[in-house]
Target: Dockerin domain-containing protein
Amino acid sequence: MRAEVKGTGSIMLTQPFAVYPKTEEIEIPDEPEVVPVDNTTAVIDNTDKVIYGLEEGVTDFSKFVKVTGDAQLSITPTENGYGTGTVIDVIADGKIINTYKVIIFGDVDGDGYSNAYDSIAFQLYMSYNTEFSKEQLMSGDINNDGIIDETDMIYSNLSGVFLYTIPQTRT
Model:
């Protein structure tokens, strides 16, 4: 007898060819998932597989996200630090079952902060001298209008000289 089930809840298996049919009920555990810690602004976007709503400069992700079930999180920073593009893997039974990437709005260089380095990266992108990854495009859309344009670059420039704080949540 073989059964394959995905999801939550319980199933009933019956052996129909036994002299005395035997029915057993088993519990199927919920699949582990990443959820925001209570009273935080963290958002888990399961469509785009990104996590945002974190603070600039975050290094302790356990203050914002946790995993349910029997699993753990593995966090791999970018080459510049714990910023946009940081990889968060959900690991269960020694296997990666889900992967998310971190978005810090305004942080297109992946160091965890929106600063002058990001302003330079914006200028390179706007002058077609560099390309952005999916996560950089999401991070760079500071005003959340679906495109990166001069308005986003202005916000980045202001943030780079500490005259504007980029919100890390979306409304």
